[in-house]
Every structure is written in C-alpha cells, then in structure tokens.
Amino acid sequence: MRIKQTFLRLAAALLLAHLAMAARAAELPAAFTDALRQAGIPLDHVAVVVQPLDAATALVSHNADAAMNPASVMKLVTSYAALHQLGPRFSWPTEVWADGPVRDGVLEGDLIVKGYGDPSLTLERVWLLQRELRAHGIRHIRGNLLLDTSHFELPPLDPGAFDGEPLALYNAAPGALVANFNATTLRLKPEGDSLQIVPEIALPGVTMRAEVVLTSAAGCNGWKETVTPAIPDPTRRELVLSGQYPRGCGEQALSLNLFEPAATFDFIFRGLWAESGGTLAGQTLPGMAPASPPLLRVESPPLTDALTSLNKYSNNLMTRNLFLTLGAARFGPPATLDKGHRAVRATLDAQGIATDKLVLENGAGLSRIERISARSLSQLLQAAYASPLFSEFESALPIVAIDGTLKRRFNGSPLVGNAHLKTGTLRDVSALAGYVYSARGRRIAFVMLVNHEHAKRALDAQQQLLEWVWHDLPAAVAPQP
C-alpha cells in the first residue's frame, strides 16, 4: 500500500510539473516553439522574459528564475554597474615619469610608465603619448623602460585555458598596461612560392616561420580558417604558420594574441618610438612609479566610448579590464577579481536587482561558470530604462542589422533598426537581451537565453520571438498609469 501511495504521489507531482510547463509554454508564440522544436532544443533549456516597459507585469516569463550561462550578454551587467558606480565621464589615466635630467633631447635615466587599466590605449593613442614626450624635450632615452603594472593584482592566467585557442584575440588577458587590445598584427604576403610574414610593428627577438602551401583556390572567404598559427615551444619566441593560403587573396592582415600584455606594450612602445626617430638604449623591466607627480598624464576617452566598443563588438579584454577597475575604484587598489565580483554585486543589490543566481568569473561572459537568471537580466534592463543614464546604456548596444555583432543578423526583417540587443555566443550557449521597439510604438525589454548543445541552431527561434514581440504584441497588455 505504501509503495502504491508513493507511486501515486510521484505521478501526481510529475503531472503537475508537466501541466505547469505546458501552462508556461502556452504563453509562448507557436512559431517560436515550433522553431525550437525543429532545432532540437527542449523548452526547459530556454529562458525567456518579455517585459513591456509601460506595463506592471511581464507578457512572457518562461524559466525566468533558472540560473543560465548568458555568454557575452553578461557584459550588460558589467556595463550597468560601471555606469552607476563610475559615471559616464570616468576615464583611465596612464602616467609617465622621467627619472633623470633631460639634456639636449636626451633623458639621462629611466622612463617609467604606469598603467591603471586603460582598455582603449590604441596604437594612435600610444603615438600621441610619445608625441607629448617629445614636446617635453625627450628624443632619446639612455636608461631603461620601466613598466609599473601594480594597479592590477592577478593570478597567472593561461590564455588557452578557456577553449585551447591561446592566440585568439578574444582570449587576451587583462592587464594594467595594455596596448592595442594586446593585438600583434602581421601582414601576410604571397611572394613566389612562399608566404612572407611582415609584422606591422618591429618584433626584435621574435622568429616567424611560414609552413604554408600557396594554392590557386578561387575566392578568399574563409582564409583565416585555413591558416593555423602556433607557438610550438612556449619558452621560445617563435611563431609558426601552417596550412594553406589562396594566392589570390593577395596581402591580408592577421591579428593575434601573441604575448602577455606588458610584452605587447613594450614592442608597440619601442616600435613606434623608433619609427619617429627616437632611441631607447636600455632594457624593459618591471618597475614602480615614484611618489612625485608624473611628467605627463594622459586620459582615455570617457567610459561611454568604452562601453560602445565593448558591447557593440563584444570586446572581452575591455570588459575584463573594466570589471577589475570597478573593484579597485570601490575597494581600493590593487584591483583583484574578488573585488570586481563584490563591486558588481553591491551595485546590483543597491538597485534592487536580484543576485541570488548571479555567478561571476570575469564579467565578460568568456566563462563556462558565469550564471544569471533571465529575471535578473530583465530587472536590470528595467532599472536601466528608469535611470537618467538610460541613453548612454542603450546607445552602446548593437542595433539589429545596422552595426556591431548584429550587423549581419535579421536582415530583411521588420526588426531592422528597431532593436538594441546584446548578443552572447559560446559553445552550447546562444543569448540575446536588450530593447525592442514595437510596431505600436512601445518599448519592450527582451531576454532570451539558450543553454543546450544545439544552441547555435536557435537563430530562427530568436527571430520568430523577436518579430512576435515587434509585430503581434497583444494590445491588451495593460500599461501602467
């Protein structure tokens, strides 16, 4: 009898769970659920919240409290925290000291550079920094180049740990002193029967070898997939390119994450300095900035510019540096990952955004362990909309079929130009979150997270749901008074 009662209770519980799932699924449009079914993605691996911003309750809430991997949609969390904690005008400094007298254009001592995590120190901005040095009378440096990276305190990071692609730019490690997004750009040039590798910035001490077969294949699309870069021996600075390269491609650029940030900064600084006729006689060494005021201090563009770059183009390094900056700004330097975690969580808690399902690793979504619920993301989108900084937050997001990571998505759809959405893609993850402007002129917060081995097949389902939100959103959803 007890066994029978237990079985009946279990059957009843399963039936209730099934009915509850069916009730939730009934809220979803048929075209959307059909697309998921065709993609082989079960509904319990999908979370959706559709919230009209003029209504008191969500139109659709499915699996809203499930802890899901959002991939790069996590950048919304870091961006929101940064706007509220740092403010839109925040900028990162880079400071320079001359440790010695300057006579007749010669610095008789060391040049010291301290970084504070500026993620937008491009080649052009390094060149401008050097131009200011020359304006201070420095043309030649007889001492060493000392790099102070003490503003960040990070454990050893393996750039290949995430997916075995250590040379991919999206795996570039964060750093207090990062130049050009840690990218080393190589020009590939077919000459005769071989492929020549020419770095854009001189790389003294680095050997480059091409073991590439030149082919007569028509077209040039996909050439990067046929060329494989590798550093066979981590103890040696030797890059080997193997594979095939279509001769018809002509000259192409290949940007790689070859070195740790301080080494890349060194190559770029020395290369640009030499190009302008300067000399630097000494070595590049770790150093500490003096307590005296710097010779010069250059500021990055404002935070709003950084948010546009990191969201529209999903720049992981910029987001990771911003995440660390939040920790240092709130709890004092040096910046650590733990301080970044606590700073983001504190901001969300203060704004009433649920953090019970939040798991942070680097704030960029380049992670297998980061988690958040669709409900929390929807709350964040609603809080951002109610904020005086909403314009800055929304304008940083890709516009459907117009720019950023959505430039080639949903073309020919009525969504074109009518949604600002952050994308997120990893193996087994496909995510979208942001704002849709409906045909009825309403603004809708939209969150859709897919965690499943077939997540890459979710694109049609995403479009079906987005178009339903834009097109067929029931007018009966009551707006708030």
Characterization of the model:
Strands 2-1-20-19-18 form a 5-stranded antiparallel β-sheet, sandwiched between helices. Strands 16-8-6-3-17 form a 5-stranded mixed β-sheet, covered by helices on one side. A 4-stranded mixed β-sheet has the order 4-5-7-15, covered by helices on one side. It contains 12 helices and 20 strands. α3 (75-86) runs antiparallel to α7 and α3 (75-86) crosses α9. The chain is globular. The chain has 3 domains: 20-89 and 304-470, DD-peptidase/beta-lactamase superfamily (Beta-lactamase, 3-Layer(aba) Sandwich), CATH 3.40.710.10; 93-156 and 266-301, D-Ala-D-Ala carboxypeptidase C, peptidase S13 (D-tyrosyl-trna(Tyr) Deacylase, Chain: A), CATH 3.50.80; 184-256, no CATH class. Helices cover 31% and strands 23% of the residues. β12 (227-230) and β13 (238-246) form a beta hairpin. Residues 10-26 and 475-481 have low confidence and may be disordered. By secondary structure, it is of the alpha/beta class.
